[in-house]
Amino acid sequence: MRPAALAVTVLAMAVPALAEDLPQRRPGLWETRWQGEQGEVVAKQCLGPDTERFLAGSLAGGTCSKLLVTRTATGYAIETECAMGPVKASGSSVVTGDFETAIRSEGATRLTGMPGQSAPLERRLVMESRRLGDCGPGQKPGDVVASGGPGPAKP
Fold first, then answer.
1. Sign of torsion, CA 25 102 65 51?
2. Strands across the sheet with 121-133, in order?
3. Region Disordered: which residues (predicted)?
4. For residues 14 and 135, what is the distance between their CA atoms, to the nearest angstrom?
5. I need a surface site. Which of 25, 30, 50, 138 has the fewest CB within 10 A?
6. What's the predicted TM-score (pTM) here?
7. How far is CA 54 from CA 18, 34, 36, 113, 120, in A?
């Protein structure tokens, strides 16, 4: 998968973990794995009490025009519509877990406007996130380490 497609797909599927209507994950160091047909992305993030609320607000006001969260008997159903430049992503997912030690999201995203692609792309993605413990020395809420090394810090 191209980096842009992966970024939009991960963004659209990550929104469920960030939406303000969902419980917030317990502060600490979390490892998240996104697995799809095109491979896997792994990241570790130090979460503080308001990290996810800050990111959810940024997504809702910026790249995502729709974040619909519905409580179900076993978790949450999510519908999203996001954009990154000319690429549009609409997705649906189901989120389960206790938000204290683990969460899981399974969903599908439809991508349109991909450069060089005349037809929409359909992507399925599974996100699993688990709490590893407290953040490490020198880490602050929002710090991310992706499978390729440290990423930019976010408040």
1. positive
2. 64-71, 76-84, 87-97, 102-112, 121-133, 28-36, 39-47, 144-146, 149-150
3. 129-155
4. 21
5. 138
6. 0.73
7. 9, 21, 27, 28, 31
